[in-house]
Amino acid sequence: MSADDAPRHTSTATLLDGFAAGDPDEVLRLGNLLKDFGPAAFGMLLFIGVLPAFIPGVGGAIGGPMVILVGVQLLLGMRKVWLPAFLARRGPHRSAMMRFRQRMAPWLRRLEKLVRPRMAGFLDNRIALSFTGLLLVLLGILLALPIPFTNYVFGFLLLLFALALLERDGALLLVGWIVGGIAVVVFGFLSGNLVESLSGLIAKRF
């Protein structure tokens, strides 16, 4: 791995502070935000993609596809984030990041006291990242589905994955695997929603 591709550790609280500082009407273009982060950009894109989950009503429909996009790329073993041009030119307004910072920063700062770079092998292992990607695809589908009262549940769970990728915390990633696997079984396969959605996707593809 070259120096340019070396994983970059970024404090999530510091990242959020940077997002919130500046002109509230400015659009934070995803392409500009991600270009300097190398492999850590997956965590950053996931972090941004999860934010709509905390918006009542339409959050899951917006955040779900973003989570799936991250998951598919990890599942395929991609080392750098790819964004379609129309998406790279778009992004959240800084005012939305300000509101999210006011609401979530205290909780994130408490969580960051427990989060630190460790067990980095899980962040660099091809099989581990593919499994992470698979879970993110399934959770992204569930987030996008109209399952009542689950947006916040999936939002907080996906934030664990985002923090693990951003903070290079393999132990937190393991926690995400366990809790995410349970969520997929409980909310997905047992309810039948995930099976129906996957069947529909496969039918359209083939």
Question: What would you say this structure looks like, in words?
Answer:
The protein has 206 residues and is an all-alpha fold. It is built from 11 helices and no strands. Helix 8 runs antiparallel to helix 9, helix 8 crosses helix 10 and helix 9 packs antiparallel against helix 10. The longest helix is centred in the C-terminal third of the chain and has 20 residues. The N terminus is likely disordered.
Topology:
Blueprint: H1 12-20, H2 30-34, H3 41-50, H4 59-75, H5 85-88, H6 94-112, H7 121-124, H8 126-144, H9 151-167, H10 170-189, H11 193-205
Helix pairs in contact: 1-6, 3-4, 3-9, 4-8, 8-9, 8-10, 9-10
Summary, kept brief:
The protein is an all-alpha fold. Helix content is 67%, strand content 0%.
Features:
about 210 residues, mainly alpha, 11 helices, about 0% strand, globular, disordered N terminus
Share of residues in strands: under 5%
Bulk shape: globular
Say what oligomer this is: single chain
Termini distance? 36 Å
User: By helix and strand content, what is the structural category?
Assistant: mainly alpha
Which runs of at least 5 residues are low in confidence (pLDDT < 50)?
1-9
Major beta sheet summary: none
Order of SSEs: HHHHHHHHHHH
- Structure annotation, total helices: 11
Number of strands: 0
Average of pLDDT: 80
Radius of gyration over C-alpha positions, nearest whole angstrom: 16 Å
